[in-house]
Write a structure and sequence with these properties.
mainly alpha, 453 residues, two-stranded parallel sheet, Growth Hormone, Chain: A
């Protein structure tokens, strides 16, 4: 008589999704009421639903968020299956790692300079190239049963580099045409919120479209290509243009003087690089860390939890940084870095209870949802928008070097364990907290900033 061994399948409770939705909705809906007293003291301040005297701002914000949501949806459709898509095309584990490493290497060698090129030629063209790259990848996957995995990885990496600065630079440049500076904070957190919701939507759309992976045409690549084409048309129609006064020579001189020559910008760039490294390693390692104890886990059910937590974290921004904020606190960003670092530290200790891991990962994602728009706000304070793209792409270069090193040593040669990589990600977050603390002390000594929010 044979023995049947039942495997334990772990999945989150349904109430957890409802809890995330409830807290996110409450954070958005209750903020105007709790900030009413603060708004009385600051008649010119704004909240997430108060746009003040900028009559045309709601239309601009809606148009931009629609475009940014489309771009996020396209990115999500391009990477929704992760390693499973590479395995479907017959790639081995080592080949998958080398493809990821090739993408990071291209981001390092080419993507580092894309921000500077975007500053000179205009963010409109950078956004168009982002859409064209996804259009190419979607077309190749749709018409070819076995597309070049290396080529798609390189294209997606370049598109990710472009997205890290192009849309933000465009949005801030439009704000500088006459909108109130304090409204930027609202748009920053709404960008993070809409990006996370679009990534969840990409998972839903992908699960709906893909019924049989052996049928190559009706895969997420087809709607991704169509959405990329729609975005190109949308950009061409809605964008009014971007005026430039920089020549290459003048831009180089200004960049050396106002970015490379400013220690505050260096500190901010280091914090951005540490964050990028930690987030990248999290998305690489969360799945193998979760199933490390041998239990079967519905990983597709955890992905929305992480993104929902990120959405929840982004809704905390107006509570701390809006002009009508009842809990305004400049130390909140430092605390968010520390909390995120502590979460990864516990994971690095090789804790393997799935429920606790889910909680720690959700707290980490909530912290990143708070940190990302907070850093965008600091970039507006210290970095001239004419050099914003160059600063962002240059700040990611050290993190790309570290990512490439750990991908090869940990993923390909297996000389470094996953727990060690996770510990390095935690150290990076603690280092970023130190950078923000140093920046705050420097701000007290030199209160002059490029902008005032």
């Amino acid at each position: 008589m044979g023995v049947v061994v039942e495997s334990e399948v772990w999945e989150p409770q349904p109430f957890f999704y409802l809890l995330l939705f409830f807290f996110s909705s409450s954070s958005i809906l209750l903020f105007p009421y709790f900030s009413s007293s603060a708004r009385t003291k600051h008649h010119a301040s704004s909240s997430s639903i108060d746009f003040g005297s900028s009559a045309t701002f709601p239309r601009f914000q809606r148009s931009f968020l629609v475009l940014y949501s489309l771009a996020s949806l396209i990115s999500g459709l391009g990477s929704v299956f992760g390693d499973s898509e590479y395995q479907h095309y017959g790639a081995s584990r080592e080949q998958i790692v080398m493809c990821l490493a090739a993408g990071v290497a291209v981001s390092l060698l080419v993507g580092t300079f894309l921000g500077m090129i975007s500053d000179i030629t205009g963010p409109r063209k950078a956004c168009m190239v982002f859409c064209i790259l996804h259009l190419i990848v979607g077309f190749l996957k749709s018409v070819t049963k076995h597309p070049s995995v290396l080529l798609t990885s390189i294209c997606l990496s370049l598109a990710s580099s472009l997205m890290s600065f192009s849309f933000e630079t465009w949005m801030v440049s439009e704000h500088e045409k006459g909108y109130r500076k304090d409204l930027l904070t609202d748009t920053f957190w709404l960008m993070t919120f809409s990006e996370s919701s679009s990534l969840i939507g990409s998972q839903v759309l992908a699960n709906f479209m893909v019924k049989d992976t052996n049928k190559g045409f009706f895969t997420p690549s087809t709607p991704a290509a169509l959405l990329a084409l729609l975005s190109i048309i949308y950009i061409s129609k809605e964008w009014t243009g971007y005026k430039h006064s920089f020549s290459i020579h003048k831009y180089r001189e200004s960049f050396y003087d106002q970015v490379l020559g400013d220690k505050k910008v260096w500190i901010l760039a280091l914090a951005q690089g540490f964050l990028h490294f930690s987030i990248y390693m999290f998305w690489i390692l969360w799945a193998p860390t979760t199933v490390a104890d041998g239990r079967e886990v519905q990983l597709s059910l955890l992905y929305p939890c992480f993104l929902g937590s990120k959405m929840l974290g982004s809704t905390a921004i107006p509570w701390f940084f809006s002009g009508a904020s009842p809990f305004r606190n400049d130390d909140s960003l430092t605390a968010a870095f520390v909390i995120a670092g502590l979460c990864l530290s516990v994971v690095a200790y090789d804790y393997q209870d799935v429920g606790v891991l889910l909680l720690l990962f959700c707290i980490f994602c909530a912290c990143t949802g708070f940190i990302i728009p907070s850093l965008a706000r600091l970039r507006t304070l210290y970095v001239p928008n004419e050099m914003r793209g160059g600063m962002i792409s240059l700040s990611l270069a050290p993190s790309h070097i570290a990512i490439l090193f750990f991908l090869l040593q940990g993923g390909y040669y297996r000389n470094i364990s996953n727990s060690t990589i996770m510990a390095m990600a935690a150290i990076g977050l603690f280092s970023a907290a130190g950078c923000i603390h140093a920046l705050k002390r420097w701000k007290k000594q030199t209160p002059e900033n490029w902008h005032k929010l």
